[in-house]
Amino acid sequence: MHSLIAYDVTIDRIFNLMYRTECWVRKADFDKNATPHTL
Question: Rounded to two decimals, what is the model's pTM?
Fold first, then answer.
């Protein structure tokens, strides 16, 4: 049972990290498209 709870916490952290990374990538992509010059 203890390992199951730790597993849930790990999954939650992974999804949270993926969500924040996706938001950061979308924001960076938006900023890149908003600027007149491309990198």
Answer: 0.50
The encoded tokens of residue 8 equal 């849930």
Please give the Cα distance from 19 to 17 (Å, whole number): 5
Rounded to the nearest 10 degrees, how much is the dihedral formed by the CA atoms of 33, 36, 38, 39?
-100
CA dihedral defined by 29, 31, 34, 38, rounded to 10 degrees?
A: -70
**Dist CA 34 CA 22 (whole Å):** 18
Q: Read off the pLDDT of residues 9-35 as tens digits, 9 standing for 90 and up.
A: 898 999 999 999 998 888 888 887 776
- Residue 16's H or E segment, with its range, is helix 2-34
